[in-house]
Amino acid sequence: MTRDEIRQFLEFYQDLGVKTIYQRGSALQAEQLPDLVEDLNSLLPPLPAPKIIPKPPPAAPPAVSMKIVPPTLIPLAPEGDTMEAIRTDIGDCRRCRLCEGRNKIVFGSGNEGSRLVFVGEGPGADEDASGLPFVGRAGQLLTQMIEGTASKEGIQITRPDVYIANVVKCRPPENRTPMPDEMEICGQFLFRQLLAIKPKAICALGSTAAKALLGTKEGVTKLRGNWQKWHDIPVMVTYHPSYLLRPYNQNAKREAWEDLKKVLHFVYD
Ligand code: URA
Q1: Which of 10, 26, 121, 185 falls 20 to 30 Å from 41 in CA-CA distance?
Q2: Does 69 have pLDDT greater than 50?
Q3: Domain 105-268: which topology?
Q4: Using one digit for the tens of pLDDT, what is the confidence trace for 209-219?
């Protein structure tokens, strides 16, 4: 066996994932190779059976006349929609994978006739356990932001006066960001809630809420501070309270307070 043939043999085994060849003696002798190959063969898993790729079926003959069936368009909000009807429609929802890990569906809470709705991303552990939005640390900060700003600005509202909901109503595993299909499936219920409440303004907390409402990939830093629109309803995007809880985001905190002041004056003046 030539040196080249030996090299090809060894490269072949290397390609199969065999990294080390142990052998007795110091140097690999050409006459040892058949033994070595036999040893290796006994260690290697059998080669997989060749894959048989079925022939594709013959193409269907072109249709003489194609009947186009338009997709059934589900109206964004059925006529006379109510929060109760939306809750009933959600039921024990199994429409997406988020149902697998949830304890409670977090529908939303607050004044269903409110002039102001806050939209968050999705429930965390505390919300999943209680069934209520924004009750954990981020929620406590949100309450402080609403009530602190209102009181400083002489606006007589407390948290129960506004409505709070999320883009997705079930907790994403490990608090990950909701996936586009989850946002789309669950978003229809958020949209129905918003249309049923008909608030004077919406405050989108963080980029997931901004993306769901405005369909934009633009970050919060770019969007915040200026009014946007969702179905003719003014939308103010601001930082998510969880982001503001991080100690190095002092500037963002100040900006979020500015945004909230703008929102509260617009809605309640
Ligand atoms: N974060 C959210 O976006 N929503 C909640 O309800 C809680 C934390």
Answers
A1: 26
A2: no
A3: Uracil-DNA Glycosylase, subunit E (3.40.470)
A4: 999 999 999 99
